[in-house]
Amino acid sequence: MILVLGASGYVGQAFSQELRRRRLAFIPLTRKAIDYTNLELLFDYVRKVKPEFIINAAGYPANPNVDACEQAREETLFANTLLPQTIARVCLMTNTPWGHVSSGSIYQGAKVVESEGTRIERDMNRPEFRRLLAEHPERICGFTEWNEPNFSFRHPPCNFYCGTKALAEEMIRGVGRSYIWRPKMLFDERREPRNFLWKIQNYAKVYRCVNSVTHLGDFVKACLNLWEQQAPFGIYNVVNPGPVTSRQIVAMIQRILKPDRPFEFWKNDEEFYQAQARAPRSNCILDASKLLAAGVPMRPATDALADALQKWQTPPPMANGGVWTRLVPVKA
Ligand SMILES: NC(=O)c1ccc[n+]([C@@H]2O[C@H](COP(=O)([O-])OP(=O)(O)OC[C@H]3O[C@@H](n4cnc5c(N)ncnc54)[C@H](OP(=O)(O)O)[C@@H]3O)[C@@H](O)[C@H]2O)c1
User: Fold this and answer.
1) Which atom from ligand 1 is nearest to the alpha carbon of 194?
2) Distance from the CA of 56 to the center of ligand 1, in angstroms?
3) CB 4 within 8 A of CB 15
4) pLDDT at site 319
5) SS3 248
6) Measured distance CA(242)–CA(176) in Å, rounded
């Protein structure tokens, strides 16, 4: 039996759905049923039910964006750093293997291959970098699991959310039998405020950036495959390979969904940070080679995005026969 913590959340629900599809027995645990953030309660519960694997999909997400975590530092630190540490201790004491949903947002930028070696470019909006990405994509590499996070409390600047996610990795890495799974910019085909494809369609203006992205369904499948295939424990970047720009994503939305609205972009970082954002955002490219080498396939990012948009779900008709009005723009 598998235990899913944070089962009521966006990621936790996707794990539950995939476990159901695989006909694997699981308990979707919520804090309402048992306060699993309490070490003694979790320890007693795990000793009693003896799960063969625990999935930690609980956390304080950047919802609707990382600025929210700046306002809720205590909750963010508790759910994103202290809770994984509690789970790690319980799993170590009970010798239970487990997987933790971390985040790829603990990096900033990408690696650039030069004749004299590799350098890190933190600012992927620099025109020179954009030109290189367009003309010589083979010279742009993502961060691997062996690269130390460079968007963390140890390597500022970072935002509070990413700092707590990086700190959690540092605390649980190598403790017991554990996976650390790193998704980046999760998306799927649902009109759901956590879905990056939904967010980008509802921003007042879109921020120009380059990123790795992860399809939510692909993510939970890949995480479970690692465990089912008994891949070595450790950290895995779980992204759909290939960097994508927000411009590319908007172009796909326009081509596939044909929305009846124009998309506006922030002119530059200065305008974006002055008008919209408080805390620095992470934009980065992650290398998925370790995951692929473990025998876990992932579709290219552009294929996964196109597929999600083709399956984009329209809202159910309103009971009163009314019409859906445009949603309030969300902050990037
Ligand atoms: N969504 C994304 O785009 C994204 C991207 C990268 C990484 N992640 C990571 O994925 C994990 C899950 O994110 P999500 O988007 O699924 O978030 P979510 O929808 O808010 O779900 C998180 C769940 O965590 C549980 N939880 C435990 N302690 C909590 C606390 N102190 N405050 C709030 N919730 C608490 C809650 O479940 P119960 O109340 O049922 O116990 C909650 O439903 C987080 O660690 C997040 O950092 C998410």
Assistant:
1) 1
2) 9
3) yes
4) 53
5) helix
6) 32
pLDDT at 179 over 80: yes
Instruction: Judge whether 302 lies within some domain.
Output: yes
Phi, psi of 9 (to 5 degrees): -85, 180
Q: For position 62, what pLDDT does the model report?
A: 86
Q: What is the CATH number of the domain that holds 252?
A: 3.40.50.720
- Diameter over CA atoms, the chain: 66
The structural domain count of the chain equals 1
In this structure, what token pair is assigned to residue 263? Answer: 């998309």
With a 6 A CB cut-off, is 10 part of the ligand 1 pocket? yes
CA distance 33 to 226: 28
Peptide bond into 262 cis (omega under 30): no
Residue nearest to atom 3 of ligand 1 (CA): 186
Residue type, 83: L
Is residue 324 one of the residues assigned to a domain? no
Let me know if residue 197 belongs to a domain: yes
List the domain range (segments joined by +) for residue 79: 2-310
Q: Is residue 27 part of a domain?
A: yes
